[in-house]
Amino acid sequence: MTTETDAGSTNRSPTEPLHVESESHLDDVIAERDVVLVDFFADWCGPCKMLEPILADLAEETDATVAKVDVDQHQPLAAAYGVRGVPTLVLYADGEQVEQHTGALPADRLRTLIENYTE
């Protein structure tokens, strides 16, 4: 039996970036959340490191779920999603891909992208 509290917590966005562990995990996150911003990143990538605090803030301050995929650990997953460079940011709304950007975007632009789909 699912209580109202349990049901609410299922769709509630985490307040910090969620590290994706597999393709099925990412598929589940996209299916279960209203708005998901997926960050395909690499530890050696300078622009990716610059985005880390921005994405942490967005996870905390917006209704979107921020998911992070390490392309070195999950090469087949990155390939399946057509990632050719890092960082690649992919935005999903209601299970559908609605935006994709390669390269770091400023915080205000990312916030606007998310807000376009969460309001």
UniProtKB/TrEMBL annotation:
<dbReference type="GO" id="GO:0005737">
    <property type="term" value="C:cytoplasm"/>
</dbReference>
<feature type="domain" description="Thioredoxin">
    <location>
        <begin position="1"/>
        <end position="119"/>
    </location>
</feature>
<dbReference type="InterPro" id="IPR005746">
    <property type="entry name" value="Thioredoxin"/>
</dbReference>
<feature type="compositionally biased region" description="Polar residues">
    <location>
        <begin position="1"/>
        <end position="14"/>
    </location>
</feature>
<protein>
    <submittedName>
        <fullName>Thioredoxin</fullName>
    </submittedName>
</protein>
<keyword id="KW-0813">Transport</keyword>
<dbReference type="GO" id="GO:0015035">
    <property type="term" value="F:protein-disulfide reductase activity"/>
</dbReference>
<dbReference type="Pfam" id="PF00085">
    <property type="entry name" value="Thioredoxin"/>
</dbReference>
<keyword id="KW-1015">Disulfide bond</keyword>
<keyword id="KW-0249">Electron transport</keyword>
<feature type="site" description="Deprotonates C-terminal active site Cys">
    <location>
        <position position="39"/>
    </location>
</feature>
<feature type="region of interest" description="Disordered">
    <location>
        <begin position="1"/>
        <end position="24"/>
    </location>
</feature>
<feature type="site" description="Contributes to redox potential value">
    <location>
        <position position="46"/>
    </location>
</feature>
<feature type="site" description="Contributes to redox potential value">
    <location>
        <position position="47"/>
    </location>
</feature>
<dbReference type="InterPro" id="IPR013766">
    <property type="entry name" value="Thioredoxin_domain"/>
</dbReference>
<feature type="disulfide bond" description="Redox-active">
    <location>
        <begin position="45"/>
        <end position="48"/>
    </location>
</feature>
<keyword id="KW-0676">Redox-active center</keyword>
<feature type="active site" description="Nucleophile">
    <location>
        <position position="45"/>
    </location>
</feature>
<dbReference type="InterPro" id="IPR017937">
    <property type="entry name" value="Thioredoxin_CS"/>
</dbReference>
<dbReference type="InterPro" id="IPR036249">
    <property type="entry name" value="Thioredoxin-like_sf"/>
</dbReference>
<feature type="active site" description="Nucleophile">
    <location>
        <position position="48"/>
    </location>
</feature>
